[in-house]
């Protein structure tokens, strides 16, 4: 349900050994809380309870920067960068010595340099907005060959407000990947944490649900194997299981039991440790539906053209059953028809996460919601129950016929095929060009439903100049209508393209609205190509855009140089009339 994640949390309870209990220290979540990435655990990107932000307020010149925090801590020569999107807690009683017992509205920030912060969002208790209420340094960060940046905390954390727990994944130079549980009121690491989630730990026979097959010995484990934890964390509907993704080459989906503080289960997208394929690195991580089903989108690899097909789930959307005693169970798979060609060219499907779309018919018993996915090829995929097949031993054979694709295709022929096929929204269409600066989409779409019941998806990305496909041209935003006609399956249709501006490397779009009215589309653009370095004198300064979702014209944007260098593929957080951006600090925008 759009932006209702906080409301759901206040109703949830835990089940331990079959006994239902509500935590004694439970603290009700509010409509303003933003406790996970992209608005909610379904990753709709829709902040639907926003009453203060309106297009008229932005156009009238009353909207602008309200405050910024101090620059956040660097590590050696590496400045802080926020790849993780900010989170927001509408009322949090802080328990540190300086602020003990005082309640604040709080922004949570997590940095590439391995720090986590609670930052005051509004003037209260004599404390100015932007002041740091607590900070915790988890690890000296990993330094990888990626953006010339430290890579400590890259994925967006997640909050269990009822228990006042904050979960963060960190890459430590001496420890590799570990999952932390923090006390939300103090920033102190909770007893029993951290939990190791490095590849060597994940690949244990008792943990990995897609283990190695055959008698060939595994290649020696390489401590320096390049990998990132880019995907946002997510929690099961009962908040017991914490889900994360790891992988730039070989991909992983993993679950940590927050009660026992143990690694509960993991699933590798390829069973062979020597493979570098199937990375799960989209910035919104896994999506979780109301029934607890878990969806992950996997990619390809620029360093490995093909891997043995047996139990190889690269270039696919994976559906897992709700976690049980048997661990992560792969229930169904969708793989595009042309995956052999796109896999060979590193044209990842997995650069986008999956947005789980609301069930407008309120069929609460439905187990199979619609999903919207993107990818580097610039396609928009709509998936339903019929799109998924039982996994078997390997993906379906590659096809040259676009009409065989199992996504929910428009009945209209697509220009690149001359027949129905996947909808290409950022061109020119190519099965082979999609690496680095030639990629056309790396962002999960945002959903919105207006007062007439019309449903829309907004994709950010890049059309490319046919003469030089490293150069971006308009459109960088596309509006699709979701149609649910009687008698045939739902499908997507292009309803608008933003032709008046060009984004260079945008993060996931989000929508703020007061229910079905006063909608605003927000995008944070890196303002540089994907290959740009994020440190040094030429580090790009991002631009925040507010866009009319009907006309796709800019209502407002930040002035050049206003924002400091940030990470990549993070998005704005909307709460209580304000817009929060993470760069090398937290910056708040609102009505003055």
Task: Give an overview in words.
The chain is mostly beta strands and 592 residues long. The chain has 4 helices and 37 strands. The strands form 10 sheets. Strands 3-31-32-33-34 form a 5-stranded mixed β-sheet. It has a 4-stranded antiparallel β-sheet with strand order 4-37-36-35. It is globular, with a radius of gyration of 22 Å. It starts with a helix and ends with a strand. The model is unreliable at 1-26 (pLDDT under 50).
Describe the secondary-structure layout.
Elements: H1 5-9, E1 14-16, E2 19-21, E3 46-47, H2 55-59, E4 63-68, E5 87-94, E6 102-110, E7 115-120, E8 132-137, E9 158-160, E10 165-172, E11 176-183, E12 195-196, H3 199-202, E13 234-235, E14 241-246, E15 252-257, E16 262-268, E17 287-288, E18 294-297, E19 317-320, E20 330-334, H4 339-344, E21 355-356, E22 371-373, E23 379-383, E24 423-424, E25 446-449, E26 455-460, E27 463-465, E28 468-473, E29 477-483, E30 491-497, E31 510-514, E32 517-525, E33 543-547, E34 554-557, E35 573-575, E36 578-582, E37 586-591
Parallel strand pairs: 3-31
Antiparallel strand pairs: 1-2, 4-37, 5-6, 6-7, 7-8, 9-10, 10-11, 11-12, 13-14, 14-15, 15-16, 17-18, 18-19, 19-20, 21-22, 22-23, 23-24, 25-26, 26-29, 27-28, 29-30, 31-32, 32-33, 33-34, 35-36, 36-37
């Amino acid at each position: 349900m759009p932006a209702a994640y906080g409301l759901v949390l206040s109703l949830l309870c835990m089940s331990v050994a079959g006994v239902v209990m509500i935590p004694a220290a439970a603290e009700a979540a509010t409509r303003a809380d933003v406790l996970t990435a992209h608005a909610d655990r379904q990753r709709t990107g829709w902040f639907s309870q926003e009453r203060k932000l309106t297009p008229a307020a932005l156009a009238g010149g009353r909207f602008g920067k309200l405050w910024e925090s101090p620059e956040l801590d660097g590590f050696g020569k590496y400045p802080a960068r926020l790849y993780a999107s900010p989170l927001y807690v509408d009322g949090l009683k802080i328990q540190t010595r300086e602020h003990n017992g005082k309640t604040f509205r709080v922004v949570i920030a997590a940095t590439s340099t391995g720090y986590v912060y609670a930052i005051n969002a509004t003037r209260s208790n004599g404390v100015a907005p932007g002041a740091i209420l607590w900070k915790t340094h988890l690890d000296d960060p990993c330094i990888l060959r990626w953006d010339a940046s430290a890579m400590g905390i890259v994925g967006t954390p997640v909050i269990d407000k009822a228990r006042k727990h904050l979960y963060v994944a960190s890459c430590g130079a001496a420890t590799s990947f570990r999952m932390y549980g923090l006390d939300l009121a103090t920033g102190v690491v909770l007893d029993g944490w951290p939990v190791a989630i490095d590849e060597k730990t994940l690949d244990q026979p008792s943990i990995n649900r897609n283990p190695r097959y055959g008698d060939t010995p595994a290649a020696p484990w390489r401590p320096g194997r390049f990998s990132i934890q880019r995907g946002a964390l997510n929690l099961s509907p009962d908040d017991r299981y914490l889900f994360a993704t790891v992988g730039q080459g070989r991909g992983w989906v993993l679950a940590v039991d927050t009660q026992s503080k143990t690694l509960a289960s993991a699933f590798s997208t390829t069973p062979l440790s020597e493979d570098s394929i199937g990375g799960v690195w989209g910035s919104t991580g896994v999506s979780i539906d109301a029934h607890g089903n878990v969806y992950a989108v996997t990619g390809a690899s620029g360093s490995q053209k093909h891997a043995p097909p047996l139990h190889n789930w690269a270039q696919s959307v994976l559906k897992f059953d709700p976690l049980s005693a048997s661990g992560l169970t792969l229930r169904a798979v969708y793989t595009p028809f042309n995956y052999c060609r796109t896999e060979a060219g590193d044209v990842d499907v997995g650069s986008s996460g999956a947005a789980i779309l609301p069930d407008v018919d309120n069929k609460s018993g439905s187990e199979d919601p619609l999903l919207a996915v993107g990818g580097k090829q610039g396609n928009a995929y709509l998936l339903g129950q019929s799109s998924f097949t039982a996994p078997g031993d390997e993906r379906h054979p590659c096809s040259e016929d676009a009409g065989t694709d199992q996504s929910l295709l428009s009945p209209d022929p697509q220009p690149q095929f001359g027949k129905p096929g996947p909808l290409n929204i950022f061109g020119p269409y190519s099965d082979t060009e999609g690496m680095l600066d030639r990629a056309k989409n790396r962002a999960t779409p945002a959903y919105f439903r207006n007062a007439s019941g019309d449903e829309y998806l907004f994709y950010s990305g890049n059309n490319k100049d046919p003469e030089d496909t490293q150069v971006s041209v308009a459109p960088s935003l596309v509006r699709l209508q979701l149609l649910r006609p009687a008698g045939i399956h739902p499908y997507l249709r292009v309803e608008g393209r933003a032709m008046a501006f060009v984004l260079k490397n945008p993060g996931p779009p989000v929508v703020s609205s007061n229910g079905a009215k006063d909608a605003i589309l927000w995008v944070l653009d890196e303002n540089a190509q994907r290959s740009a370095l994020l440190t040094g004198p030429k580090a790009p300064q991002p631009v925040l855009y507010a866009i009319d979702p009907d006309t796709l014209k800019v209502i407002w944007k930040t002035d050049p140089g206003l924002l400091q260098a940030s990470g990549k593929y993070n998005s704005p957080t909307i709460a209580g009339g304000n817009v929060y951006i993470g760069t090398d600090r937290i910056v708040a925008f609102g009505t003055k």
